[in-house]
Design brief:
Length: 227
């Protein structure tokens, strides 16, 4: 059980890197244990993409961060598709190697960016959950990185002035406060587990998710990734 640092309402610049390291240590061994055929499985959260496509997107995004290559339109759907296409001739193992490098080296760059790149780390962790769902693996949007991911989610939603929400979570000792706190709108209330809250904020399918209660805000208002 972990008490979220959002009680201090201060960004921890090292948190994104810690989250990426935790995910690297769990996801990369899983990927290396899977057959090549598994990389062709469809990913429900990303229509039209396979596991390989998601991983190519993740690895390329992190390497862009590491190399600080942020040309106009970076991370747009068109840019993402180009990054995936550039890796079309790569082996699955090479993509996993690049992903491991990115998860290892991107943290310090994200830390120095002042918060603007924090969503990249959270998005990578969410995509790890997408891949686990495609594989039929347990623990999607959970695992050792969940407390860091939840606290980072709070930081990101506050920075964006997102809809306010107080979440009473099975996974944390104290309520998690998300979104802006100007008082102009009373906060919504969520009661449930962390992985389901992540699914709601990431706009992921709720198939197989645990039951939850949501009041004062609609689920569609929580999605921070759009679409």
């Amino acid at each position: 059980m972990t008490t979220p640092a959002d009680l201090h309402d201060v960004r921890d610049p090292e948190r994104p890197g810690r989250l990426l390291t935790l995910e690297r240590d769990e996801l990369v061994p899983l990927l290396r244990s899977r057959a090549d055929a598994d990389f062709a499985l469809p990913v429900a959260a990303c229509p039209g993409w396979t596991v390989r496509d998601v991983l190519a997107h993740c690895s390329s995004a992190l390497i862009r961060v590491v190399e600080q290559r942020f040309e106009k339109g970076v991370f747009s759907p068109e840019s993402n598709d180009r990054d995936i296409a550039e890796r079309a001739d790569w082996s699955n193992a090479r993509i996993v190697d690049e992903l491991e490098r990115g998860m290892t080296e991107a943290g310090p760059v994200i830390a120095r960016a002042g918060g603007v790149l924090d969503p990249v780390a959270l998005g990578e962790w969410v995509h790890g959950g997408d891949v686990r769902v495609a594989f039929g693996e347990p623990g999607a949007y959970a695992g050792r990185g969940l407390p860091e991911a939840l606290t980072l989610l709070g930081t990101i939603t506050r920075a964006r002035g997102h809809v306010p929400l107080h979440a009473d979570l099975d996974d944390l000792d104290e309520p998690l406060k998300l979104g802006e706190a100007s008082g102009e709108r009373p906060p919504g209330r969520y009661i449930g587990d962390g992985p389901t809250l992540v699914r709601l904020y990431a706009g992921r399918p709720l198939d197989g998710a645990a039951g939850y209660e949501l009041a004062g805000v609609e689920a569609k208002e929580l999605n921070i990734f759009g679409g």
